[in-house]
Amino acid sequence: MVSALPSNFLSSPDYVVLNEKCGVILTMPKIKTVRGAAKRFKKTASGGFKRKQSHLRHILTKKTTKRKRHLRHKSMVAKADQVLVVACLPYA
Asked: Domain range spanning residue 21?
């Protein structure tokens, strides 16, 4: 999708390409924060992102108390996924 655009369009300072694979082009200077990501991820002082563990919403009777207790703690976003989180939270 991005390759179909004229070359001078992509080099213009009025536009920035966030994800060339999906072809997401946003106008500058304001980039919108993905609100769903803002509610799910918090930035830490060291620059990483913490997230809540999954599998703790329903069907809890078959899960042991130890498993549910460990799922209550926050976890860090993997390094491979941090690029996606930063793209969703440009001002974090």
From this structure: 1-31
The pLDDT tens digits of the residues spanning 62-75 come to 999 999 999 999 99
Distances (CA, A) of 12 to 1, 15, 56, 68: 17, 6, 46, 51
Residues 48 and 9 in one domain: no
Q: In sequence order, what DSSP letters do the residues of 22-38 get, joined into one string?
A: TTEEEESS-----HHHH
Q: Both 36 and 80 in a single domain?
A: yes
Cβ-based neighbour number of residue 92 at 10 Å:
14
For residues 42 and 49, give the distance between their C-alpha atoms in angstroms, rounded to a whole number.
Answer: 5
Interstrand relation of 41-43 and 24-27 (parallel, antiparallel or unpaired): unpaired
Task: Please state the domain count of the chain.
Answer: 2
Q: Are strands 49-51 and 15-19 parallel, antiparallel or unpaired?
A: unpaired
Pairing relationship of beta strands 41-43 and 75-76 according to DSSP bridges: unpaired
Give the predicted TM-score (pTM) of the model. 0.65
- What is the identity of the amino acid at 11? S
